[in-house]
């Protein structure tokens, strides 16, 4: 569905993402992993047209830059890392913004599907009871769910998620990740996400790119990428040992 | 979903309040004209009959009425611009005066007068065109500088640059006035505003500008909602970010430019009234923009009424009244919000 | 004859009250208009004058050659433009003034700070404050400047001439009950008028007119509708004309709602010379004469 070739992002003379290529196929959940500063979030920005990049990104065989913003929004939904709504919008208003791309022109018809999709997204994310609440009063986790509901309401084919588990407590981590997996189970869909928690990545991902210093160090199936050698090299520590050790705390 | 826009009766209520304020401002003034006389002058004018004898006809029809129209339109325009910029930049302190756009427009107008920029056969066009152009250029410059300083266009950096730019523009104005000498003696007009030059021609120009630019801005309500949540969010839900931004900035510059060339720099209207409106109707621009326009018109009408009548026969510059009242209201609103949030 | 001797008496009184010019051979001691005593060894030959009126007085006394620097707004008579300009008002620059090596700086207190005055005095420059707020104090300023430059006799003559001019106007004016509205700034920028305690108000009184805005103190922005309601017999505008568009007088006549004013109907609108009528200098007499002729001419027509 989505192919990227030689994506490079420079801020000034600093190269943040350096020649990353990959392709995202239907049914895939591609995990971007790597230490802080590896360029994961910047890569997501480039994919969502938020950062200027060199290289080529194609969506369904067409250059991403050639899409109109509303066309693109109907195909790709983005959940970014930080949310700080400046004003007291209600959850419902935030979620209904997800239907922006479906809103007809000035005189053409209304978005008939909209209300249903919004209600569904609110219900799926467990935000239904809070639909009239101001986003300024939400906790970090509730805020993240509200914006996830917005992306769901947008009904895209590809989800780009930057740290979807950010601010979420365990229940909602599990809840949201299962939701995304369910969402992915329908045909014609794919997910790309930045995930810090390697256990979560390993558990839900089908594929992975391991990034370090802006470069893709390893990519492919999740288990082929998350090998002890790869992880040790990228993180500079014995990741497997640490994970097993952490797990022992629970025995 | 059902309450995203105002119902017709809400608009009716707003219009009634605006009409009431306008009527009050036509009836009250520095010279006291009995309300009955005022109404009969208005009624005769509506019916196309000549005014009754005496000075009241001239006062009502030539002085107060055009002024009330201009004041209401400028109030609505500045308030709409403030609301739009506060949404667009996701910055509750944004406004023509805090961002330095008004000073930029003044600079343009002063230059037009000092260097004799005029468009033949269109009496005010040269000044207005320069005011609009400079409003836009200064807005672009301020945003560019703020962007260099801080890519997220945060509240403090953009206001800081706006204030610095305002000072810069004011000093250039002083400089031009010093060199142009007597021709531009009335520096108070450019710093405090004055609406005493109001006439029906100005009111007509303002009304046309507000009709066109207002429609453009109101049509962008949903886009402004997206911007108010965040520019990244706006992009990801499919808003054509650059085009919408440019459209709104141009519309805002035109409105501020025309308002400044008619009434000078009038501060705080665009800052305070959208705040009050937001407290009452919420941040959704589908309601916020119309509510800001109506409340801006009423606010400026009342401020002008105070300026005209408080120390009669002296007239206080409108900018003094709005800044005085506005800053007090602003502090109250600001602290209330802080305590709540 | 009688009038002349009265004015000489008056002049003497003024000379005494201004208490200057004790030329005792050793030097000149004057008291300036802030009550400060200044002593000079001999009449000043290098003077910087920051206000337009002081420049006018200096030149009218025949001491124009002492002017080594002038404020930016000083523009009359044309000869003063030859002296280098220094920033005045809020932008007064002490260094610029010191560089001109004057013996005396003439200024008013409006925009100068004490620090600036001290800095000048530390540089060995005498600072003399002239600050005329009414016609009587203009005489005082003339006497003061005459004493500084050793032109006491000329100063006395000038004051006598001004007094004679004003006295003649006062004696011949028959305008009792007529009102005048002074327009300082046109409608476009907000109407400003001159109220009581202004030179315009004093001149109006000499001409037998009542200032329509005598209830305003000094200059103030007034309501347009007040002008309409007060319906003055005369309008005097001091707006300058720049050779484009309607003249200030035409502009007033064309204002909506003003067409029924007495002054507009009888064409009694006078474009006065703004500098003559607002600067505390010798040309106030010219301004008074011009207004007198205008309203006198009107009276003769009626």
Shape-level CATH architecture of one domain in chain A:
3-Layer(aba) Sandwich
**Rg of chain C, alpha carbons:** 21 Å
Strand content of chain C: 15-25%
CATH topology term of the largest domain in chain C:
Rossmann fold
The neighbouring-strand order within the major sheet of chain A is 6-7-8-3-9-10
> Domains counted in the coordinates of chain C: how many?
2
CATH superfamily of one domain in chain A: P-loop containing nucleotide triphosphate hydrolases
Q: Helix coverage percent of residues of chain A?
A: 25-40%
How would a textbook summarize the main sheet of chain C? 6 strands, mixed
Query: What characteristic shape of chain A results from the CA principal axes?
Result: globular
Just give the CATH class of one domain in chain A. Alpha Beta
Please report which band the strand proportion of chain A falls in: under 5%, 5-15%, 15-25%, 25-35%, 35-45% or over 45%.
15-25%
Calculate the terminal CA-CA distance of chain C, rounded to whole Å: 33 Å
Radius of gyration of chain A: 19 Å
Compute the separation of the termini of chain A in Å.
43 Å
| Continuous helix count of chain A | 10
Written as H for each helix and E for each strand, in order along the chain, the element string of chain A is EEEHEEHEHHHEHEHEEHHH
CATH class of the largest domain in chain C: Alpha Beta
What is the mean predicted local confidence, pLDDT of chain C?
Answer: 84
- Give the low-pLDDT segments of chain A: none
List keywords for this structure.
A: 251 residues, alpha/beta, six-stranded mixed β-sheet, 10 helices, 10 strands, globular, B: 341 residues, ABC transporter involved in vitamin B12 uptake, BtuC
């Amino acid at each position: 569905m989505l192919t990227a070739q030689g994506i490079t992002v420079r801020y000034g003379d600093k190269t943040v993402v350096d020649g990353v290529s990959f392709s995202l196929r239907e049914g895939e959940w591609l995990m971007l992993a790597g230490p802080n500063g590896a360029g994961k979030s910047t890569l997501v920005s480039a994919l969502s047209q938020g950062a200027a990049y060199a290289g080529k990104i194609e969506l369904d065989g067409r250059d991403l830059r050639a899409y109109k913003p509303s066309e693109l929004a109907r195909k790709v939904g983005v959940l970014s890392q930080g949310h700080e709504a400046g004003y007291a919008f209600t959850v419902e208003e935030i979620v209904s913004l997800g239907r922006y791309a479906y809103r007809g022109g000035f005189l053409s018809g209304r978005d008939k599907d909209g209300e249903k999709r919004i209600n569904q997204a609110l219900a799926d994310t467990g935000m239904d009871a809070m639909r009239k609440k101001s986003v300024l009063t939400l906790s970090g986790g509730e805020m993240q769910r509200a914006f996830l509901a917005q992306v769901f309401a947008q009904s895209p084919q590809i989800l780009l998620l930057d740290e979807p588990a950010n601010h979420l407590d365990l229940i909602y981590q599990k809840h949201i990740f299962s939701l995304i997996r369910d969402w992915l189970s329908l045909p014609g869909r794919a997910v790309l996400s930045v995930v810090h928690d390697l256990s979560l990545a390993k558990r839900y991902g089908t594929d992975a790119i391991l990034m370090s210093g802006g470069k893709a160090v390893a990519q492919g199936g999740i288990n082929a990428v998350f090998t002890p050698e790869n992880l040790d090299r990228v993180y500079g520590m014995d990741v497997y040992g640490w994970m097993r050790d952490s797990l022992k705390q629970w025995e | 979903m059902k309450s995203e826009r105002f119902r017709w009766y809400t608009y009716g209520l707003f219009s009634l309040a605006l009409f009431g304020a306008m009527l009050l401002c036509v009836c009250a003034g520095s010279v006291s004209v009995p309300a009955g006389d005022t109404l009969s002058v208005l009624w005769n004018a509506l019916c196309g009959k000549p005014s009754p004898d005496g000075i009241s006809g001239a006062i009502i029809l030539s002085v107060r009425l055009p002024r009330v129209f201009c004041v209401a339109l400028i109030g609505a325009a500045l308030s709409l611009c403030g609301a739009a910029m506060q949404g667009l930049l996701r910055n509750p302190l944004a406004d023509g005066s805090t961002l330095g756009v008004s000073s930029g427009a003044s600079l343009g107008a002063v230059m037009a007068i000092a260097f004799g920029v005029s468009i033949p056969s269109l009496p005010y066009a040269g000044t207005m065109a320069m005011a609009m152009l400079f409003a836009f250029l200064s807005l672009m410059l301020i945003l560019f500088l703020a962007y260099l300083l801080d890519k997220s266009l945060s509240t403090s950096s953009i206001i800081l640059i706006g204030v610095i730019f305002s000072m810069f523009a004011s000093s250039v104005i002083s400089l031009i006035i010093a060199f142009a000498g007597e021709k531009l003696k009335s520096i108070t007009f450019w710093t405090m505003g004055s609406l005493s030059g109001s006439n029906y021609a100005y009111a007509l120009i303002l009304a046309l500008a507000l009709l066109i630019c207002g429609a453009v801005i109101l049509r962008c309500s949903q886009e402004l909602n997206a911007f108010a949540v965040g520019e990244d969010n706006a992009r990801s839900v499919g808003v054509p970010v650059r085009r919408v931004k440019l459209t709104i900035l141009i519309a805002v510059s035109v409105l501020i430019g025309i308002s400044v060339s008619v009434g000078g720099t009038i501060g705080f209207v665009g800052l305070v009234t959208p705040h009050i409106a937001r407290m009452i109707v919420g941040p959704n621009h589908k309601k916020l923009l119309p509510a800001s326009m109506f409340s801006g018109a009423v606010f400026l009408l009342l401020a002008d009424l105070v300026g005209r009548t408080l120390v009669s026969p002296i007239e206080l510059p409108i900018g003094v009244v709005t800044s005085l009242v506005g800053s007090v209201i602003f502090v109250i609103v600001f602290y209330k919000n802080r305590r709540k949030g | 004859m009688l009038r002349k001797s009265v004015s000489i008496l008056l002049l003497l009184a003024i000379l005494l009250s201004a208490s200057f010019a004790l030329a005792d051979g050793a030097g000149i001691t004057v008291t300036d208009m802030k009550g400060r005593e200044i002593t000079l060894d001999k009449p000043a030959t290098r003077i910087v004058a920051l206000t337009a009126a002081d420049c006018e007085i200096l030149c009218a006394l025949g001491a124009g050659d002492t002017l080594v620097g002038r404020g930016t707004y000083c523009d009359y008579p044309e000869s003063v433009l030859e002296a280098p300009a220094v920033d005045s008002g809020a932008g007064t620059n002490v260094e610029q003034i010191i560089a001109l090596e004057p013996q005396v700086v003439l200024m008013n207190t409006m925009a100068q700070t004490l620090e600036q005055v001290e800095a000048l005095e530390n540089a060995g420059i005498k600072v003399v404050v002239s600050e005329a707020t009414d016609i009587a104090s203009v005489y005082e300023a003339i006497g003061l400047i005459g004493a500084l430059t050793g032109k006491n006799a000329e100063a006395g003559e000038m004051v006598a001439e001004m007094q004679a001019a004003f006295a003649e106007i006062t004696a011949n004016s028959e305008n009792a009950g007529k009102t005048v509205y002074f327009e300082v700034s046109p409608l476009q920028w907000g109407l400003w008028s001159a109220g009581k305690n202004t030179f315009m108000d004093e001149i109006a009184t000499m001409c037998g007119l009542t200032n329509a805005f005598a209830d305003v103190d000094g200059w103030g922005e007034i309501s347009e509708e007040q002008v309409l309601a007060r319906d003055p017999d005369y309008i005097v505008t001091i707006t300058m004309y720049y050779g484009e568009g309607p003249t200030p007088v035409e502009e007033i006549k064309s204002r909506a709602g003003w067409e029924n004013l007495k002054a507009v109907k009888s064409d009694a609108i006078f474009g006065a010379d703004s500098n003559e009528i607002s600067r505390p200098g010798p040309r106030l007499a010219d301004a008074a004469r011009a207004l007198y002729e205008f309203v006198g001419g009107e009276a003769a027509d009626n």
